[in-house]
Amino acid sequence: MGYKILAINPGSTSTKIAVYEDENMLFSKSINHSASELEKYNSITDQFEMRKEKILNILEENDFKKEGLDSIVGRGGILPPVKSGAYLVNDAMVDRLKNKPIIEHASNLGALISYEIAKEIGVNAYIYDSVAVDELDDVARVLGFPEIKRNCLSHALNSRAMAIKFSKEKNRDYKDMNLIVAHLGGGITIAAHKNGHMVDVVSDDEGPFSPERSGRIPVKKVVDMCFSGKYTQKEMMKKIRGKGGIVGHLNTVDIREVEQMIENGDEKAKLIYEALIYQVAKGIGELSTVLDGDVDAIILTGGIAYSKNLTKKLSDKVRFIAPVTVLAGENELEALSYGALRILKGEENYREYEELIEDLSFN
């Protein structure tokens, strides 16, 4: 009998779960939460009990007893900077996410729900590759604004999972490889992996625009907009995250719709599409310098990577740097489960979360 693992990935309007036995998925489910259902709650944390009960109901519907689980792993929420890999969910982490959240974010519920179910059945709960994974080199932290500290927020879970998967397929050790991984989704982040560490990233506000985020924008013009009196702080933040990028230009977040618009002769859609490819390629080029040009491979992943046309055009731009591999999809439930499996098998060690005084600023 293999290890049985429940993976939980809470999103803003859904909770995705899967049960794995070793590397084999037994079943999965995406539980959708309507706007009318969610508006009953004052905060994301208040949704805890509702989401937990729905998860337990799915287990029952699949005739799976929670007592048969060996471990539970949740999507890592927005914590103070943490290292890559697994963290045991403990009281300190729960207190931080529940009572002192850095940002109210649905992913915070991953640890909270996992911990509660795990306590009920006497197993460990983990988070794996939180969005707050921060392994930047010191030189990568320096900004021209001394008042601002550069922290790392990225699609670490899928980025590392695909880097590890690629290394395994090549019969190489991830810790011996230099890789650039571009996660292409609703948000776009690009990471430089050097000998098993994400030493630098192009985050979703530092590089390419994406379907719903503005990416890098001229700061002086943004300051002018902020002080123009035309926009509130909330409106400006929405322009950056939610109404920026492709949706701001073309009123859609679906890259397939953009490609259809181009096929129908829409020249503006073509320009925006080409600009997206251009900016992602530029971000990959930036990170190639971080690795001194010594890049074993470039990996394109995320939902947008299903577009063969886009990945072909992007590959053509960057293949002079290194060979390009496409591993499309989010792969987050698989990544969570495989991470927990490595812990159970003793192939990786987990860390204990500690609330450090210097973590509390998170500027």
* Structural class assignment: alpha/beta
- What is the CATH superfamily of the largest domain? ATPase, nucleotide binding domain
Shape, principal axes of CA atoms:
globular
Distance between the first and last residues' Cα: 47 Å
- Low-confidence parts lasting 5 or more residues at pLDDT below 50? 357-363
Q: What CATH architecture of the largest domain would you give?
A: 2-Layer Sandwich
As a percent range, the share of strand residues is 15-25%
The main β sheet shows up as:
7 strands, mixed
Sequence of secondary-structure elements: EEEHHEEHHEHEEEHHHHHEHEHE
Strand order of the largest sheet: 3-2-1-4-6-5-12
CATH topology of the largest domain: Nucleotidyltransferase, domain 5
Domain count: the total is 2
Q: What's the average pLDDT?
A: 92
CATH class of the largest domain: Alpha Beta
Number of E-state strands:
12
Please bin the fraction of helical residues. Answer: 25-40%
Helix count, per DSSP? 12
Roughly how many Å is the radius of gyration? 21 Å
Please characterize this protein's 3D structure.
The chain has 363 residues and is α/β, with parallel strands linked by helices. It has two domains: 4-135 and 333-352, ATPase, nucleotide binding domain (Nucleotidyltransferase, domain 5, 2-Layer Sandwich), CATH 3.30.420.40; 158-329, Nucleotidyltransferase, domain 5 (2-Layer Sandwich), CATH 3.30.420. 37% of the residues lie in helices and 19% in strands. The chain has helices spanning 35-38, 48-61, 91-99, 108-121, 156-169, 219-226, 233-240, 246-250, 255-263, 267-290, 308-318, 332-344, and strands at 4-10, 14-21, 24-32, 71-75, 86-88, 124-128, 178-184, 188-194, 197-202, 297-302, 324-328, 351-352. The chain has a seven-stranded mixed β-sheet with strand order 3-2-1-4-6-5-12, with helices on both faces. Helix 5 (156-169) packs across helix 12 (332-344) and helix 9 (255-263) packs across helix 10 (267-290). The protein starts with a strand and ends in an 11-residue tail after the last strand.
